[in-house]
Amino acid sequence: MRSLPANHVTDELLAAYAAGTLSEAESLIVATHSAFCPICRDAIAAFEAVGASLLDEIEPEALSAGSLESVMAKLDDLEDLPDNVVRHPSAKTAAAGSDQGFVLPEPLRSYVGGDLNDVVWRPVIRGLEEAELSVSGPEFNVRLIRVAAGAAMPQHSHHGSEYTLLLTGAYRDSSGRYARGDFQMADGDVDHQPTAEPGEPCVCLIVTDAPIKLTGPVGRLLNPFIRY
């Protein structure tokens, strides 16, 4: 029996996801985590129910002339969006890929264009590879990283926020152990060096809104060249 994730998305992010106010990048990682995590799926459903209840209490207002035509025109525009755009998948949709034998659940699998063996990796440093994913909006960098078994990422802190979702393997840092389905959020107060456990490569989905800040003795010299 597959164990449940021990580290979850924050309530603030889950509520914003349920309200549809997250960016595409943030929605992608929250929806993918919820594919592993029935606890967070239930929380999303609860937040959605609260939102629906509040809407029911709002007094309706008369529509202005031409409102229906305007809405129908916008629906036509949605049909022209790229296939990989997250259209705020529901918790049920996000969970659909979690029991189908795939390493990558939906909606992440659609962004990759297949499963983990379809990812085209680019070497970064010894023991670390990455694959960038395309999302709308310039404010976030979204990528998969693969860390060789037993290897460590460079020690770093953050100029902004970093969201990490474990897809395969496991790693440890100063805050604990993270395994498949676990979610970690880090910011400028966190200085860590995630190290993959022996046995299998550690593959993560990472979303950042600012470059990381290398803090190791050698890494500090490389900060002017860091782009994420």
From TrEMBL:
Domain ChrR-like cupin: 115-208
The organism's place on the tree of life at top rank: Bacteria
Gene3D superfamilies with a match to the protein in the record: Anti-sigma factor, zinc-finger domain, Jelly Rolls
Name of the protein in question: Anti-sigma factor
